[in-house]
Amino acid sequence: MPSRIILITGTNSGVGYAASKVIARKSSAFHVIMAGRSLDKVEAARAEIESSGDIKGSLSTIHLDVLDKISIHNAAAQIAQDFGRLDVLINNAAVGNLDPDLQTRLRINMETNFIGPALVSEAFRPLLEKSENPYAIYVSSGVGSLTRASNPDSSLYKTNSPVTKYGEGYATSKAALNMLALQQAMMNKDSMKIFAMCPGFVVSNLLRWDGDKANSGWGNAGDPMVSGETLLSILEGKRDADLGRFVHKDGVYPW
Ligand SMILES: NC(=O)c1ccc[n+]([C@@H]2O[C@H](COP(=O)([O-])OP(=O)(O)OC[C@H]3O[C@@H](n4cnc5c(N)ncnc54)[C@H](OP(=O)(O)O)[C@@H]3O)[C@@H](O)[C@H]2O)c1
């Protein structure tokens, strides 16, 4: 049995896919359970990673839709049966919904990016508690930082870009996720290592509204493999000095 069992939600693209690849390439000690709401998509992603070579760890897949409590609990029951514990939970799945209808985009962003991770954390807590060194990582976003959003010197302090026009739903969901991570970190500080983490601005499928142009950040987005390296550094204990904080590649964001 591998010594570290790692569950990542939303692994068929972007940060979750890259993190699965980085972690599986790192060590035979790691087993990555690639979760997704489409089993076909995560199985295709796993096959792609395995055929890319240089894999030292192992990979498996599981169906997990963060909007569906039954699917979350079925996944937890399956992992309990297969592994008996979980060492690392990476709550990564999210949407960047920019629907013009306010109620629609607030609801979809909050349900997927905040309520979903809360339900996933609750369902997997008993399995994490069976680990000798459990980590729970909430993949958030720098746009969820109230301190940055309210600082006129910050790059986030702007209101007229096409992304920010309907972006309050996403940003609000990440601010809520940050509060969840902070509260979880305080409540579980003696039993679990909990982080919020921003993966940086990287190529992914998050912004679907303008196709490839938005997905690549209009050419400005970075490589999600770098985000995967940051997640790896957290679960390897290299960021333990920042326990309970909102970390990114180069440091810590203010809440
Ligand atoms: N990319 C960036 O620049 C950036 C910046 C800051 C933070 N982030 C954060 O990084 C994380 C990963 O996003 P990404 O950028 O890699 O975007 P992405 O490529 O769109 O990946 C998001 C993943 O979440 C999955 N997902 C969506 N709804 C789900 C649900 N109900 N249940 C389960 N899985 C679901 C998606 O699956 P489907 O393909 O089935 O929809 C996909 O696998 C997110 O938390 C995001 O907020 C990204």
Automatic annotation (TrEMBL):
It comes from the Eukaryota. Belongs to the short-chain dehydrogenases/reductases (SDR) family. This is Uncharacterized protein. GO terms for molecular function: oxidoreductase activity. PANTHER family: CHAIN DEHYDROGENASE, PUTATIVE (AFU_ORTHOLOGUE AFUA_5G01530)-RELATED, SHORT-CHAIN DEHYDROGENASE/REDUCTASE. GO terms for cellular component: cytoplasm. GO terms for biological process: secondary metabolic process. Signal peptide: none annotated. InterPro entries: Fungal_SecMetab_SDRs, NAD(P)-bd_dom_sf, SDR_fam.
